[in-house]
Specification:
- This protein is mostly helical and 51 residues long.
- It has one domain.
- Helix content is 80%, strand content 0%.
- Helix 2 crosses helix 3.
- The longest helix is centred in the first third of the chain and has 25 residues.
Length: 51
């Protein structure tokens, strides 16, 4: 039961992150700024969320 809750929270966090990245890009944030905020490289963020 606990692991299902963890899985659900993980999926929710991924969705929130994706929406937040999209909003940041709309507001003019660079991939580097987003990566810094998420503790990721700009390349990793772009690979995950770039279109």
């Amino acid at each position: 039961m606990g692991l299902r809750a963890v899985g659900a929270l993980h999926r929710l966090a991924e969705q929130v992150e994706a929406v937040s990245v999209a909003l940041a890009r709309e507001q003019g944030w660079t991939w580097e700024q987003i990566g810094d905020a998420l503790g990721m490289s700009r390349q990793s963020v772009h690979a995950k969320y770039g279109k």
